[in-house]
Design goal:
Layout: H1 3-6, H2 11-53, H3 57-63, H4 67-159, H5 165-256, H6 260-271, H7 328-365, H8 376-404, H9 406-435, E1 452-455, E2 474-479, E3 486-490, E4 496-500, E5 504-506
Antiparallel strand pairs: 1-2, 1-5, 2-3, 3-4
Helix pairs in contact: 2-4, 2-5, 4-5, 7-8, 7-9, 8-9
């Protein structure tokens, strides 16, 4: 069953049907384009959302040490990857469906136009042949009528007694001529009729069926390709579904990693001061003050709290180099940080020294490349820096071992410092190169003003190195929080010391 056999007389139907099929392909292409736009917009919004809630800055990076903070960061990273897969779906649909179908549709339009043009041309040729047939037929009818009329006139002339023999012969000759012309028209009409019947048979049984079958094949190819496009709509998404599933599994895994006990322990280890709790407040018997001022019988004379750091802003003594002015835990952390910094600088300086040695050896082997003597001042300076840094490292390790306590502490410090120096060297290389010239001035006698803040709560500074502040008091920040939860501030009266960072907010 095919169009050429069963729909030989339905040219208009085939024309409309094939056009409707092409319109459907074009409609599907537009549909997929809008789907890709939705996917791209969705992916863009997901990326913006992930970026909006991502942690930034050193303070946020510090918070990411806690599992619940780190889990959210992992979720945002997985969401960003998920957005990438949505973008991949959009790009693949645009390429494999929209672009490919658009090219296929263009080819179909050209083929359909050519087939319909062939059908129209064949129809026009058949109609032209039919017109020629009608014209030959009319001429034959006319000539035959004229021949019959001439024959009747000749017979009439012959039967008229008054007509001469010349007139009779003339009439008969005219009738013969008209009859001969009619016979020729009859032959032309018969030949044209035979030709037309042959062309008509070819048109309806061969030419039109072939054209309509080609249109049928074209339409079936369109349907088959469109069906493939329908399947691709889901298959393309199925291909990235495993990756999307892994993103979703990563989000679930991030939630499962959260450990509330570990976070609490980490907070304790990060911010514990190591100070002893304050003892009982002594009873001060003011009743004994009734006696004379010079009496020695006072049980508990009033206590006057000495200022922890009684110095003004202009004359501030430098903090102890071994950080002994800090609480125990803060002192350990500051010493360890200093050891890590010096270790990294030492490692970097040693690498510089090795590079200079290699360069000198190259210059000695090939004088054209450079003079080895020009490297000697730099090599001497590098060797001097190495000696200085080694002395600094030994000094801080000694202080840290004292803070930790005993020889065992010293051994632990040495091992820990060796591991830490290797661990942090890569991430601090850029920072060390910038600060290489400042190793001698890192702890200057005078601290810069880091801004102002206001106390949110009352704080009693009962430990060494801390000060007391009252709620609403404006303070000058002398040293920002370095991750241990404490910051050094200056009061209006000249008192200076450490307070918890969470007890203040930045002043405008």
């Amino acid at each position: 069953m095919d169009w050429g056999t069963d729909l030989w007389d339905q040219n208009d139907v085939i024309d409309k049907h094939t056009q409707a099929g092409l319109d459907l392909v074009e409609r599907y292409i537009k549909f997929v384009k809008e789907r890709t736009e939705i996917e791209q917009s969705y992916a863009k919004q997901l990326r913006s959302l992930s970026k909006k809630y991502a942690k930034r800055g050193s303070r946020d990076e510090q918070d990411c040490r806690f599992s619940n903070h780190a889990a959210l960061q992992e979720i945002l990273n997985e969401l960003n990857d998920y957005a990438g897969q949505r973008e991949l779906i959009a790009e693949t649909m645009m390429t494999n469906i929209c672009v490919e179908l658009a090219k296929f549709l263009q080819d179909l339009k050209q083929d359909r136009k050519a087939h319909l043009s062939d059908a129209k041309k064949a129809q026009q040729n058949l109609e032209s042949s039919f017109k020629q047939l009608e014209s030959t037929k009319k001429r034959f009818a006319k000539e035959w009528a004229e021949a019959e009329k001439a024959a009747q006139q000749a017979e009439k002339t012959e039967n008229d007694p008054n007509t001469t023999k010349i007139d009779v012969d003339k009439a008969k000759q005219h009738a013969h001529i008209r009859t001969h012309a009619a016979e020729e028209c009859r032959s032309d009409y018969a030949a044209q009729l035979q030709k037309y019947n042959k062309e008509q048979n070819y048109f309806y049984y061969t030419e039109i069926p072939q054209i309509f079958n080609k249109l049928q094949d074209l339409d079936e190819r369109r349907i088959r390709r469109l069906a493939e496009g329908y399947c691709q709509f889901s298959e393309l998404e199925k291909k990235v579904q495993p990756i999307i599933s892994r993103c979703l599994e990563g989000i679930s895994a991030a939630g499962a990693k959260v450990d509330e006990k570990q976070d609490s322990l980490l907070l304790v280890e990060q911010h514990k001061s190591g100070l002893e709790r304050p003892g009982d407040v002594d009873f001060e018997d003011y009743a004994q003050g009734i006696k004379a001022a010079g009496s020695d019988s006072s049980l508990n004379p009033p206590k006057v709290r000495a200022k922890l750091w009684p110095f003004s802003r202009k004359h501030k003594p430098a903090p102890a180099e071994d950080f002994s002015h800090l609480p125990p835990e803060q002192r350990k952390k500051m010493l360890q940080a200093k050891i890590d910094d010096v270790s990294n600088k030492l490692h970097m300086t040693q690498e510089t020294s090795e590079a200079l040695e290699k360069m000198k050896a190259v210059y000695e082997q090939n004088a054209d490349l450079g003079n080895p003597s020009i490297l000697e001042p730099q090599m001497a300076e590098t060797a001097q820096n190495i000696g200085y840094l080694r002395g600094e490292l030994a000094k801080y390790e000694t202080w840290l071992s004292e803070a930790v306590g005993g020889d065992d502490g010293a051994n632990a410090v040495a091992v820990n410092n060796n591991n830490n120096s290797q661990q942090h060297h890569a991430q601090n290389t850029a920072e060390m190169s910038e600060n290489h010239q400042n190793i001698y001035t890192e702890f200057d006698d005078d601290f810069e003003d880091c801004g102002r803040c206001m106390a949110l709560y009352n704080f009693e500074g009962t430990s060494e190195g801390t000060i007391s502040v009252t709620e609403g008091e404006l303070l000058t920040i002398m040293e920002e929080d370095k991750g241990d939860g404490w910051m050094r501030v200056l009061r209006a009266n000249g008192d200076e010391g450490f307070i918890p960072s969470s007890y203040v907010k930045m002043a405008p």
